[in-house]
Amino acid sequence: MTAVWATAAIVGIAFLAELVITASLSAFGRLPQSASDFVLDALLLAALIAAPIYWLVLKPLRREYEKRVQAERRAEDLGQLAITDPLTRIMNRRGITVSVLDAMAQAERYGNPLAVAMADIDHFKQVNDTYGHEAGDKVLSEIASVLSESLRMPDKVGRYGGEEFLVVLPHTTLAQGRKIAERMRSAVGAWPFELGGKQTSVTISIGLTQFQKGEDLEQLLSRVDRALYQAKAGGRNLVVTEKIPARSASRA
Ligand SMILES: Nc1nc2c(ncn2[C@@H]2O[C@H](COP(=O)(O)OP(=O)(O)OP(=O)(O)O)[C@@H](O)[C@H]2O)c(=O)[nH]1
């Protein structure tokens, strides 16, 4: 589109220049040109002035534009890198924290429900101790993929700590959140992890709660942690929903 405009501008300038030249020549007594000669001369002039305009103006402008696009892309990539966990390729703690804070602000402002879950791998130390740290890393990556695939937009998952994943479920009630958490739990439980040359199952425990208006991140996460603790204490491979105090529940 820019090229079309530039060509039109150059042809326009050439016609104007040709008009000035013709007017000057006729002022000096030269016979007026025929219309076709005028157009032909103007086009010739356009071709003559197009080359220097292209090299002196358009090419440097284009180069500058491409440099800026590349710089923006690099900045975007760096920004993405800063919020990505290198092992699992999902969001890291910083990324998912920004996501949960955003979701909390939305829920606070518009009053939509927001469910938050913390998933933690069961007996993960045993996996590392038995099969090695590299095998443990592979399990972490696979669990991250299984969790990501169990979610839909605008739900988000990020690696919050070593073997902990934070899940943010905007526009989701506790009952709906529970179904999603159960789906994640059973998807991980059914996944055929290959450890020590044979298929093995690994499970996760999940604590789930719902954001309460007026609370901060620390309060929300301490409630979800409490639910996770109960899931571990209850035998693991469980989803435990944190009981919301009646006063808060009525505000939800
Ligand atoms: N391979 C690997 N292991 C990790 C990573 N981050 C944390 N871990 C391991 O995660 C394990 C966590 O162990 P614990 O906190 O005792 O928990 P657990 O064995 O999963 O037991 P429960 O949570 O009570 O079921 C430790 O062995 C850590 O070394 C990591 O990036 N890679």
TrEMBL record:
Reaction it catalyzes: 2 GTP = 3',3'-c-di-GMP + 2 diphosphate
Keywords from the UniProt entry: Membrane, Transmembrane, Transmembrane helix
Coiled-coil ranges per UniProt: none
Name of this protein: diguanylate cyclase
Domain of life: Bacteria
EC number per UniProt: 2.7.7.65
Pfam families: GGDEF
Segments forming domain GGDEF: 112-244
Record's keyword annotation contains Isomerase: no
Gene3D superfamilies, sorted: 3.30.70.270
